[in-house]
Design a protein that fits this description.
CATH architecture of one domain: Orthogonal Bundle
Helix content: 40-55%
Strand content: 5-15%
Strand order of the largest sheet: 1-2
Number of helices: 7
Largest sheet: 2 strands, antiparallel
Radius of gyration: 22 Å
CATH class of one domain: Mainly Alpha
Order of helices and strands: HHHHEEHHEHE
Number of strands: 4
Oligomer: single chain
């Protein structure tokens, strides 16, 4: 990087020697090899919200509610509603709800769920993996409101009487967009 360029995320009060070393450190690190999350599949999120409302018997919702909770625009929500109009009940106040959800749509939803959710899988290759329990304890100490635990640990949270011993993995979900929960 040339002199005088602005750095994003670097403190402004760095000494001159550190500022000069940054381009060399970046070059030595090589190209970025990390994972980036896939683009959000907003149509999937809109359908997820409609199914969630339907399964819980929460009743109809507005297009605005879908837009806000899915984090997408009106045209995106309108297109999903158009595609699923045969499954919807449209109320006189313009709210909508699912009437039914066809089996072939369930199959499609399940098939695309991993791609739509931006699933990343990690494994410790050092030969000394941490247990799922220790990772869960560390996660709890973070006290982050945008992380949810699923799988065996999530089930045990809601149903402590479950008689399941151990869990080979820790399933977590990050809420990137404010959706169903406040």
């Amino acid at each position: 990087m040339g002199a005088g360029e602005k750095w994003v995320g670097i403190p402004n009060d760095l000494d001159a020697e550190t500022r000069q070393a940054i381009p060399n450190l970046i070059a030595a690190a090589g190209p970025h090899t990390g994972h980036s999350l896939a683009r959000q599949e907003y149509s999937f999120i809109v359908i997820e919200l409609l199914v969630h409302q339907w399964l819980l018997g929460e009743g109809p919702v507005t297009t605005k509610w879908l837009m806000e909770n899915a984090g997408c625009s009106y045209p995106t929500v309108a297109e999903v509603l158009r595609q699923f109009q045969h499954c919807l009940v449209r109320h006189s106040d313009r709210r909508v709800e699912l009437r039914s959800f066809p089996q072939e749509e369930w199959a499609r939803l399940v098939a695309m769920s991993e791609k739509a959710r931006g699933t990343l899988r990690y494994a410790d290759r050092s030969g000394q993996p941490r247990s799922a329990e220790s990772l869960l304890r560390r996660l709890q100490r973070l006290d982050c409101k945008d992380i949810a635990v699923g799988g065996v640990w999530g089930a045990k949270h809601f149903y402590p009487q479950l008689d399941i011993l151990g869990s080979p993995r820790l399933d977590i979900s990050f809420r990137l967009v404010s959706r169903i929960c406040g």
